[in-house]
Design a protein that fits this description.
The structure is a single chain. The chain is α/β, with parallel strands linked by helices. The protein has 12 helices and 24 strands.
Length: 436
């Protein structure tokens, strides 16, 4: 077995694309490949690398029954193998047929120089427990899903799974078996749902620990991402010990109230990022959203992101200075040139890769202005301003007068000298690198 540190899996915040915000439960192989092709061509050189398939990829009916507006199908019999492990639905992912699983698709994504990720629900399929289906064990004992399932531990919004009873002798075997399968497929990233916000309860906490142990046993470095939030600040040590990412918010969408609230969440979590541990602000909704959220026979095919251009910049500025994971939520081939330019500004992305801790502060004379700062080295630091008010705000920025001093506007990629004054429109931001 290969030994590695958990922190080696994500030494910097992961950057990539997730299918959920646009496709919901409907994404298929052709669409995943199209997004991977786009990333490889347009985004990879700037650090974007993960292609993550979100929820319900094992459900053959997810795309057809959504015509009635059903997101998660009650009592659905999705695809599993002989050991109660979910496998891709071959009608949606044709290359997975005949037991191939996600390996052919992962191989294709790897051939582009990218990394491959999937979403799973915590636990074991309910119907596998009801039907006493087998699980894979380390000693080849005949154990069935009902013997490790906890029927009292269910998800409030998804009907697919029971929790895994950590007191069962073969509970760890089940998680070992699914992560061994993912390693065989070539999975680099696993987003686990219905777990992050509940870790005060023993079954959830222990399931995180079993997953972390299973990843180690698999011999493959796999990023472990916990969802949904809000994460519990009192459990920060547990998240940092066993996971790489954990959601500090519930699902984040294109609503200014949610973006404004993220500043408080980031302030709470600002001392807990780094060294393979990344508090997660959720996806970056932009461009086209929601195609898979409407009934399939509806006239509209999603919606345009409701954030203004300045609000989108504010979102990207905060995520980058905070050093959050960056997961684009849209259909990449439909990205506008303006949004592509925002996502490929190397000076903004450099803030995300800074090895030092950023922190939030306020401008004492202007309560509606929030400021984030991160020291780069002894001679430079990042400083970002955010106008959270509904009125324009004027700010004067000075540094000590010297020929060596410089204020650089990162969005404009321009040097500005050593003293500037600027006006910020409502909901807008400024990002600077200050050198001296």
């Amino acid at each position: 077995m290969i030994s590695y540190s958990k922190n080696d899996c994500a030494p910097q915040p992961p950057m990539g694309w997730n299918s959920y915000d646009y496709y919901n439960t409907l994404v298929n192989e052709e669409q995943v490949r199209a997004n991977a092709d786009y990333m490889a061509k347009n985004l990879k050189e700037f650090g974007w690398e993960y292609i993550v398939i979100d929820i319900q990829w094992s459900d053959a009916n997810a795309g057809t029954k959504n015509k009635d507006g059903i997101q998660y199908i009650p009592f659905s019999r999705f695809c599993v193998d002989e050991f109660s492990r979910q496998i891709p639905a071959p009608n949606r992912f044709p290359s997975s047929a005949n037991g191939a699983g996600f390996k052919p698709l992962a191989d294709y994504i790897h051939s582009l120089g990218l990394r491959f990720g999937i979403h799973i629900m915590r636990g074991i399929p309910r119907f596998a427990a009801h039907e006493h289906m087998a699980i894979k064990t380390h000693d080849n004992s005949k154990v069935t899903a009902d013997q490790i399932a906890c029927a009292y531990s269910t998800c409030a919004w998804n009907p697919d799974m029971y929790g895994v009873d950590f007191k069962s002798k073969y509970a760890q075997d089940y998680y070992d078996s699914i992560f061994a399968l993912y390693a065989q497929w070539g999975v680099d990233f696993v987003k686990v749902d219905d777990i992050c916000r509940h870790v005060k309860e023993p079954i959830y906490e222990k399931e995180v620990e079993m997953m972390a142990a299973a990843i180690q046993k698999s011999g493959r470095p796999i990023v472990l991402s916990l969802s949904p939030g809000p994460a519990i600040i009192e459990k920060a040590h547990h998240y940092k010990t066993f996971a790489n990412m954990w959601r500090i918010t519930d699902d984040f969408w294109d609503d200014w109230k949610l973006l404004k609230a993220m500043f408080e969440r980031c302030e709470v979590w600002q001392t807990h990022s780094g060294e393979g541990n990344w508090p997660d602000c959720d996806m970056l909704p932009m461009g086209k959203l929601g195609y898979g959220w409407a009934p399939a026979d509806a006239e509209h095919k999603g919606w345009d992101c409701k954030f203004t251009f300045e609000e989108t910049k504010t979102m990207l500025t905060l995520w980058n200075i905070f050093r959050a994971p960056l997961m684009i939520g849209t259909d990449l081939p439909q990205l506008s040139p303006e949004n592509l330019k925002l996502l490929t500004n190397p000076e903004i992305i450099a803030m995300n890769k800074c090895p030092n801790q950023a922190y939030q502060t306020s401008n004492s004379s202007q309560d509606d202005i929030v400021m984030w700062v991160n020291e780069i080295d002894a001679n430079s630091y990042y400083q970002c301003y955010f106008n959270l008010s509904e009125e324009p705000q004027t700010i004067k920025l000075n540094i000590d007068i010297s020929d060596k001093n410089n204020i650089r506007d990162l969005w404009e990629q321009k040097d500005l000298g050593s003293a500037i004054q600027f006006t910020m429109e409502p909901h807008s931001s400024k990002a600077f690198k200050i050198s001296f």
